[in-house]
Design a protein that fits this description.
Chain lengths: ~160, ~90
């Protein structure tokens, strides 16, 4: 071996050196590095899974939101339609009520007018009668002399007999 | 003030007599002074007052005819009364 230029001792020492180097590298560098890589992979997987979960949740939320919006829209439409219907009913009721009140007022006014007319007619009649009586009284007072009074008195007493 | 009961009683009797006298008195109201003949006619027309004391009162407002009153009884046989009655009838017509 020496003729080949190979130093057996050196070879052995180098081999030992290599083995030691291999062992040390394996123990203190490769293993931690592998562990680090594994950890990173695991973290990446977790992140990916989390991202997927978040995406899924976001999609679900968006779907919920869409559904909620549709529901809201539907409810709003229903409420609006109901309000519109109620408004129409109230309008109708108000119209009916107003018509009733107007009729009552009309009747009342007619009755009042009639009463006023009757009262006025009665008053006119009374005034006329009063005036007629006054004229008759005054005329009789100025026309009647004692002879006529006597004749009238006699006629009244004779009619009583 | 306390009144003697005897005096009070006498006063009451006196008042009663006066009231009776007034109630028995026949009052004949006319527009002019009635003569005897007309008064006879009045009593013939209203025999229930015949023989009762009477007094005559002149009231121009009654115009003609007579009003006879005795107590609360009144017989209106006057022209003004008839006119009033006519006036009431006119008021009653609708």
């Amino acid at each position: 071996m020496e003729n080949l230029g190979i130093d057996a001792k050196l070879l052995i020492a180098q081999m030992i050196n290599f083995v030691l180097f291999f062992l040390i590298v394996k123990k203190f560098i490769v293993k931690p590095f592998n562990r680090f890589v594994d950890d990173e992979k695991t973290k990446e997987k977790q992140t990916e899974a989390m991202r997927k979960t978040i995406e899924k949740q976001t999609e679900t939320m968006q779907a919920h939101e869409k559904e909620f919006k549709q529901k809201m829209k539907k409810e709003m439409q229903t409420v609006l339609e109901k309000a519109k219907g109620d408004g129409l009913v109230i309008k109708e009721e108000m119209l009916v009520q107003t018509k009733k009140e107007m009729d009552v007022l009309k009747d009342k006014t007619q009755v009042q007018l009639l009463q006023e007319k009757t009262a006025l007619e009665q008053e006119m009649k009374n005034k006329l009668a009063e005036m007629s009586m006054l004229i008759v009284n005054q005329s009789l007072k100025s026309v009647l002399d004692e002879t006529t009074r006597k004749r009238i008195t006699e006629k009244i007493l004779n009619s009583k007999n | 003030m306390k009144i003697d009961p005897e005096v009070k009683n006498r006063l009451k009797q006196l008042l009663k007599k006066e009231v009776e006298k007034i109630n028995k008195m026949v009052v004949i109201k006319s527009a002019y002074q009635l003569d005897k003949n007309e008064i006879d006619m009045v009593f013939r027309a209203l025999p229930e007052f015949y023989g009762m004391p009477y007094e005559t009162i002149i009231d121009q407002e009654i115009m003609a005819g007579i009003i006879v009153q005795q107590g609360s009884k009144i017989y209106d046989l006057s022209l003004s009364g008839q006119l009033k009655s006519l006036s009431n009838k006119i008021y009653e017509i609708d």
